[in-house]
Amino acid sequence: MAERNILSYFSSSNQAQRAEAELKQLGYEVVQIDRIHRYPVGPLDDDLYNPLSGQVSSLTNQVLGTRLSDDAAILAASDPSVSGMSGDEMPGRYPFILTVVTGGKQVEQAVSIIKKHGGFV
What we know:
Layout (H helix, E strand, L loop, with lengths): L2 E8 L2 H13 L4 E6 L10 H4 L9 H6 L5 H7 L3 H4 L12 E8 L3 H10 L5
Antiparallel strand pairs: 1-3, 2-3
Helix pairs in contact: 1-6
């Protein structure tokens, strides 16, 4: 039987974790929670982003902790969190994604559990 992927979105990590726990308790093996970030994230390279050595590629990359190209950094500089005026690090209304991989017959059960815990499928 073919596997099906269910991608669901949650407004809080607690909701996603409760859905994940119930799905795992019912025997779903592949269940994963990730956080959606507004900008690409990853470890910063100390040689390229060390403000003490004077090798800062842009203020935007320094403030957001990203590795954006010059063109993308210019666009990201319009973000309120870069200017210091305000900002919310959570993107959108549903920044947490719960992924479930299951067989075709179990999709409806998984979707109902996700919705029960406040998820959007």
